[in-house]
Write a sequence for this structure.
């Protein structure tokens, strides 16, 4: 039986690494991307192989650069020819107060997070269409896209709100083809991003979480792995919250 093939962006740390390791335990063939240190991505790849991945490939990806996105898709097309799972996890999160956001930083965040998610999803559709069986896209959004910017930058919240809208839109457009599109909205999670918080900001943020602590990347990874599974075949256009009770509808 051929392994399910999955692409995970931003997999060299945090939630992306946890997702890669979770899917590795299920025997997926993985293609992981990074934007920073190649060494970190190579280490994640080695850990995934040890965890049971059928195969791991690594590429650098700049989500702001359409040519970089299209080159990645061309690489996957040549090597694999199809794709079962796309996890749009890569993104940026500057902690800039809204009076201090300039146009360059606004564009940087929106182009990386929102435009990058749109461009890669659209570019990867031929690969998803070519695969047999269950196909799905999982977008990593944020509680900030639901309730607005509190501990994050306003541009980050806007980009994550856009990702939620893209999730619903792609879900509607692709349902007739059997391609599922869902989103996960983490709250505060221990990661390279939240590591930049001051101790005071972290304490304040933590005090507003009913469960009393930050989440771990693995808490998000198991939800994404579940949505990527054929067992979730009837789930599309959904948003799964994982925020320790910070937002309860």
């Amino acid at each position: 039986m051929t392994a399910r093939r999955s692409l995970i962006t931003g997999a060299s740390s945090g939630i992306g690494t946890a997702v890669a390791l979770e899917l590795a335990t299920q025997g997926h063939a993985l293609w992981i991307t990074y934007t920073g240190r190649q060494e970190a991505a190579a280490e994640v790849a080695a850990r995934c192989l040890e965890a049971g991945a059928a195969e791991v490939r690594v590429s650098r990806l700049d989500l702001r650069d359409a040519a970089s996105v299209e080159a990645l898709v061309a690489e996957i097309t040549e090597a694999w020819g199809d794709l079962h799972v796309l996890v749009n996890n890569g993104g940026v999160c500057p902690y800039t107060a809204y009076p201090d956001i300039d146009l360059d930083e606004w564009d940087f965040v929106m182009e990386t997070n929102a435009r990058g998610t749109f461009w890669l999803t659209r570019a990867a559709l031929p690969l998803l269409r070519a695969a047999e069986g269950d196909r799905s896209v999982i977008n990593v959004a944020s509680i900030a896209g639901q309730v607005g910017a509190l501990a994050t930058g306003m541009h980050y919240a806007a980009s994550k709100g856009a990702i939620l809208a893209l999730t619903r839109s792609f879900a509607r457009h692709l349902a007739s083809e059997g391609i599922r599109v869902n989103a996960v909205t983490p709250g505060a999670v221990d990661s390279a991003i939240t590591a930049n918080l001051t101790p005071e900001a972290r304490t304040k943020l933590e005090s507003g979480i009913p469960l009393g602590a930050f989440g771990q990347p693995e808490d998000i990874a198991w939800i994404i792995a579940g949505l990527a599974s054929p067992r979730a075949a009837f789930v599309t256009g959904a948003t799964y919250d994982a925020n320790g009770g910070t937002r309860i509808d």
Remarks:
- The radius of gyration is 17 Å.
- The chain has a mean pLDDT of 95.
- The longest helix spans residues 103-130.
- The longest strand covers residues 179-186.
